[in-house]
Amino acid sequence: MAQPSQATDGMDSVPALLQRNAARFADRPAYREKEYGIWQCWTWAEAEKEIEALALGLINLGVNEGDFVAVIGRNRPHFYWSMVAAQSVGAIPVPLYQDAAAPEMAYVMEHCGARFAIVQDQEQVDKLIEVQEGLHQLEHIIYVDPRGLRKYDHHKLHRFIDIQEQGRAAYYEWIEDLKARRGRLTYDSVCVMLYTSGTTGKPKGVVLSNRNIIEASKSSSEFDRLTKDEEVLAYLPMAWVGDFIFSIGQAYWSGFCVNCPESPETMQTDLREIGPTYFFAPPRVFETQLTNVMIRMEDAGRVKKWLFDHFMAHARRVGPAILDGKAVSGMDKLKYALGNLFIYGPLKDTLGLGRVRVGYTAGEAIGPEIFDFYRSLGINLKQLYGQTEASVFITLQPDGEVRSDTVGVPAPGVEIRISETGEVFYRSAGTFEYYYKNPESTASTKDPEGWVATGDAGFFEEGSGHLRIIDRAKDVGKMADGRMFAPKYVENKLKFYPNILEAVVFGNGRNACTAFINIDLTAVGNWAERNNIGYASYQELAGHPKVLETIKGHVEEVNRSLADDPMLSHCQVHRFLVLHKELDADDGEMTRTRKVRRGVISEKFDDLLTALYDGSPEIYTTTEVTYEDGRKGAISATLKIVDAKVAPVAAAHKVAAE
What we know:
Layout: H1 14-24, E1 29-35, E2 38-43, H2 44-61, E3 68-72, H3 77-88, E4 92-96, H4 102-112, E5 116-119, H5 122-130, E6 140-143, E7 157-159, H6 160-169, H7 171-183, E8 190-195, E9 205-209, H8 210-223, E10 231-233, H9 241-254, E11 257-260, H10 267-274, E12 278-280, H11 283-299, H12 302-323, H13 330-351, E13 358-361, H14 368-376, E14 381-383, E15 385-387, E16 392-396, E17 409-410, E18 415-418, E19 423-427, E20 434-435, H15 439-445, E21 452-460, E22 467-472, E23 477-478, E24 484-485, H16 487-494, E25 500-506, E26 513-519, H17 521-530, H18 538-542, H19 545-563, E27 573-578, H20 598-604, H21 606-614, E28 618-626, E29 632-640, E30 642-643, H22 651-657
Helix pairs in contact: 1-2, 1-9, 2-3, 2-6, 2-7, 8-9, 11-17, 12-13, 12-14
């Protein structure tokens, strides 16, 4: 077993890295935030003073070493400061999803026993007050945005800036205590606790040490040659391990600037203004961007549309090869350069990706067509495979070895093995310490030698050494005839089409595959407007005959693609229906990171699933829904079930499958 890494040069905690950066990169930007349309900037020296003031204020408020401090809000410097300030006083930050419902927050707050919470605004304060009766340990709430909170009882409710001012006023009273607490932090001290998305049950608290975070950040930064000159846009949920690694771990190790957008609505505009050099997004973000591009092209003039289609066809053929430095003819290079001048360059700038040197996607498998589209533009988009329990990184794709069908090679310092059942196991310096208050799950996930069960099925390719992930091990099944069933692969092919937002494929133990589909309201709504088709709701548009016919065309095109795949040609979709509602985390159908909860969906829509397989042409159903304000309601609809044409499978593939 590999020996645990030891800190070097005293850099054994995130607060220690902050102190180093405040001295080494004092005048360089550490944080930017756009507020009221104007970018504000804090240097590393200024950020260190903001964090110090907050840390002193937390000590003054009564935060003890070992306390848990909940952090709830959108990406703002204040919340990154809050997490580092909590670490500085020996407490443990626990970021929560800001869009979580009050009961979800209550579960995490009660489970970790948080005595303090630092939140964004009135909405988050109200959620905590709503569930406060069950949170007897919660003593103080600190808020950043004061709007709407003036008349609240402020005995245990405090303004963020007031806590900082109290810290500054009590500087000489507490500074030695703060230094002593920072000095007691080691590589083995807990750095952060992050909760899993809870795909299969209640979220688990993943305890990550300074060793986990710093070693993972160090090795990954060196792998992609990250420097202090990178620019990143912090817009992903702060409760997600990816944001913690990119916006705190790697940012503090490399010393680069973290930029926070003004709001989710202005994210795309802010992305263009910043022009990040290092960018991460889950597949859903890239899918949405591609959908918007396709919508704009549908509205473009004939000449512009022809130019786009012509040069994009060329980009798909030679773009990835040029990006990887492979041999391409001079004529192809010249044509690609023209395409970059007129099409690819302006498109990348519009997307805000014109300066990206390294881009990553992870969290879910990305459709190969979507992945290849971005690389054809000359964007160095790569895939990584990771988990919260790994401090993100399990595999990475080296430059020049990027492919859509693999997730790369083991990340630096990571060991991987494949079990006899095909499940992927790993161990590394980034491997989590334990699940909080859950020794049973810890023991079943991480063995005494440090090997962690990922729950994913995969295999290493011969020759290349690249890992291929087939699907979640629990989702990979067998058709009735014994052939492999891998739903995620088919779902990603379906989601390549801008009209399809989400797809859930069924077939385990069955003799044929079927699917539930969500339409993308933006893309399909735009199409409806261009064709003078009126609609009053998502439900009405989803059931429109022309929409069903369009989706049928997409499904049959995917079937033709699958027919050429010797491993999964039998996973073609025979029947499908378009759901009358969007799958929603508030309804328990997805996690907060937009991962489908298959078990919940199968049980909740059991009547629809039955109709897909019993030959019914339509089905009437009623479904409970949760509105934005938390109220419950119900919607009813008669859903048409559509038969899709299955493409013939080549004889050679049939023989290979048998």
